[in-house]
Amino acid sequence: ASGTASNMALSRTRLCGGSAVMLLYGIRPAGVTAGCCTLTLVSRKLRLGGQLSGLQQSYSTRDQQSLRERVGSRLKWANEKYESFLQNNFPRFYLLYHTFMTGAKLLFRDAKEMKRIRVKMMRQSQSLQQLPYREVEALRQFRRDVIKAAPMVLISIPPFANYLVFILMYLFPRQLLIRHFWTPQQQMEFQQIYHRQRAQHHAGVLRGLTMAVSNITEKPLQRQLLQLCNKIERGAHPSVSQIHAVRRLFVGPPLGIKRLKAAHMRSLSCQLFLTPRLPAFLIRHRLWGHASELLQLDRALSKLGLHQLSDQELRQACYLRGLDSTRLDVVHCKEWLYNWLQLSTRLKDSEVSLLLHSMVLLSLNYPTAAVH
Q: Quick one: which of 229, 295, 362, 368 has the fewest CB in 10 Å?
């Protein structure tokens, strides 16, 4: 028993001694050394694998960016070559192509601007009445542009269908395309055509006013409206105070929007370039909506100030309100728009019928001798 105990103590001593030697000199048994090496190699492989994965992801991202840049540069180079070929060999077709591509970029720019305005309205809880003039005008114009351009955009989606769009652009540019797809010469020419079309309905508006005189019960107002109509028919230009004096007639009967006859409303709808080929109740609804929008636009413009408008914006504002600004210089346009705002900013929402009639009353005999 003592021998057995001494052997066990000796073995323990050797074990402890061996452990001490391993700790002091880093000597390990074969089994322990193999296990440690295996764990070390696995951990190194894991770290190396993570590094390689990160490098592969980095190189993959760089390769994708480089590939996109190379493809983009090649497409740009091919497009420039194609445009140069068209310009040298087919100059008239190149003009159509360039006009179409420029128009598409402008339409896309307007769409981004509309998105920005809508997002701002949502985040700041703004209504249309709180927007500045240029944003209100941009919303109004973009809505009209989209309605008119939607068919052509849909046609151009399939491959090579843009060539059909070019043919339609060449044959029917005024009827099918919006202003972004017109050349500067076409813009002026088409505006004059559209104004001549709405001028054909000036007589219908005046006739409606004259016929309403007999339905007025108040003699002073009856006399004032008759004098106003006679003055315009003689070729004279009325003052803002003369028009404003009869504003009460345009709220209820006989000249409020809800009391106008169908023929009278159709003549007024042509002043806003709205189709008159609709039922009377739809024409009335559209007139009310567009007149209210125009009144809101005038209030925003009054806050901005006419001096803030560029010459192009000034002409466009006059044209929208019934004046053929293509034949007038900037001074006359500014004078006319100032008088218009003097009238419209004094009107209530219920008096928008007078605003529609003023598109004829103020523009019909305005001087057109100063051609720019």
A: 368
pLDDT in tens, 325-371: 998 999 999 999 999 999 999 999 999 999 999 999 999 999 743 33
Give dist(CA 40, CA 262) in Å, integer: 93
Dig out the tokens for 273 from the structure: 């370039």
- The sign of the torsion formed by the CA atoms of 131, 136, 138, 139 equals positive
How far apart are alpha carbons 356 and 271 in whole angstroms? 8
d(CA 362, CA 336): 8
**Minimal CA–CA distance to 152: which of 167, 137, 142, 141?**
167
Neighbour-count burial of 31, counting CB atoms closer than 10 A to its CB (0-12 exposed, 13-18 middle, 19+ buried) = exposed
- Could you tell me the pTM of the whole model? 0.75
Q: Taking each helix axis from N to C terminus, what angle separates 91-123 and 162-171, rounded to the nearest 10 degrees?
A: 100
Cis peptide before 279 (omega within 30 of 0): no
Alpha helices in the chain (DSSP H): 2-25, 30-89, 91-123, 133-155, 162-171, 173-176, 184-199, 202-212, 219-233, 240-244, 262-271, 280-304, 311-320, 330-344, 352-361
Nearest to 216 by CA among 259, 254, 244: 254
